[in-house]
Write a structure and sequence with these properties.
The chain is α+β, with helices and mostly antiparallel strands. It has one domain: q2cbj1_9rhob like domain (Jelly Rolls, Sandwich). The chain is built from five helices and twelve strands. The structure holds 2-oxoglutaric acid.
Amino acid sequence: MITDEQKFLFDLQGYITIPGVIPPEHIKQMQADMASHGIVDPQNDPNASRFGNFLKWGPIWRNLIDQPAVMPFLTEFIGPKFRLDHIYGMAMSAKGARGGEGLHHEGGMFNHGCFYVTHGQRIHNGLIVVSYALSDVPPGAGGFCCIPGTHKSLFPLPKGAYQVDHPLVKHVPMKAGDVLIFTEALTHGTMPWTLEAWERRSVLLKYCPHYMQWGRGGVAADDPELTERQKLLLQIAHVWERPAPVFE
Ligand SMILES: O=C(O)CCC(=O)C(=O)O
């Protein structure tokens, strides 16, 4: 169950953070796994330093699919049936050229891939992003940023204003182990990483309603270690006779 305050905040801002979801010993293991899979020396460019395929790296990674602290938020924000559509990790350092993921998704848009609507006392979303911080993100360090509330705004920003240094843009600080849940319909982007002392490490899992597919390929469900519930969450988009995942 999520609280009324959490639902209110998500509806107001288009995002919410939940502290302390991943314990420090798992964070340490995940950092080590990234290093052993060659995720080292990243650029300061959120697109150039993306990585994927991490659900095969062991149970800590696989269990992100149906992480118990997150599932009630997906049920509330998408509906009882949802699927994991695509995943990627982001590694960023303060070194090198600053590429960017400028602000994207604009007020007034109705995109069938990433809508936000409320109807009948319910929230409905086309794509929800669950972003786990695997390193601390102090205020102003860089990383995820957004213009809160824009998932519901009627008018877009004026052309040319879609920059992460726009005065309305808010940076979202986090601690390693926290999770950020946001609607893709929010105007959001990535600020350059500014800290020399450590790198940004995040993993993003993106969930859709069960009837739609966002990415081109879907997430492979051929890992024999996956549970039945995890396999259900990785099923292709379909409606007929699709059960809802059950969470205790
Ligand atoms: O976490 C970030 O830096 C932004 C990710 C992003 O732009 C997205 O999920 O579309």
